[in-house]
Amino acid sequence: MKLKILEKSTDSVKIQLQGVSLAYANAIRRIALSEVPVMAIDEIVILENSSIIYDELLAHRLGLIPLKTDLSRYVLPKDCDCGNPLGCLKCRVLLVLDSGAKESVKEILSGELISEDEAIIPVRSDIPIVKVAPGQKVKLEAYARLGTGKEHAKWQAANVSILKRIKENTENDHTLEIESTGSLPAIEIFLKATEILRNRLQEFTEKTRSLKK
Length: 213
Hints:
CATH architecture of the largest domain: Beta Complex
Helix content: 10-25%
Radius of gyration: 21 Å
Largest sheet: 4 strands, antiparallel
Shape: elongated
Order of helices and strands: EEHEHEEEEEEEH
CATH class of the largest domain: Mainly Beta
Number of domains: 2
Number of helices: 3
CATH superfamily of the largest domain: DNA-directed RNA polymerase, insert domain
Structural class: alpha+beta
Low-confidence stretches: none
Strand content: 25-35%
Strand order of the largest sheet: 1-2-10-9
Oligomer: single chain
Number of strands: 10
């Protein structure tokens, strides 16, 4: 088995997989889309919203803003030992939005979300959230946590994950292209996907061995 990086940037990576079965390669592709965890806003406490959009729509928009993610410092809520339904510093991050318009119409942008962790911030500062007229204001607390794409699209680490067979070579030679949402570097998504698959296979092997006993 050989791996070769054909193209690489922060947001995308193209990898040649030689001597890798189609089933294994496709498992990596699917895990990259649905099981690599990233941060997203999940719960919101709205303190004031005098804008023209409903609270539910505002919450939906905030949830779809990609957040930079550090997997070395946070765990999925189900794996956290805090036992707190509100989470703790190991499994959730607080972001605060307090903005409004005074003399003219203003567009509130993602860059105005203030995070308690400087590493967990929107991937871009210019994502529109809502327009407010003079005198209107939005003030809220947003709680972000790790999740996976199979739970909701807002937790997808990758926008694109495509597997192609290299026609001129054997049927076990493929190229895998991954495009990140920006929450994680594309190469990290690939590495995390292979780690998840490896752990699943180890768990499966251990369970099959226990059947013999």
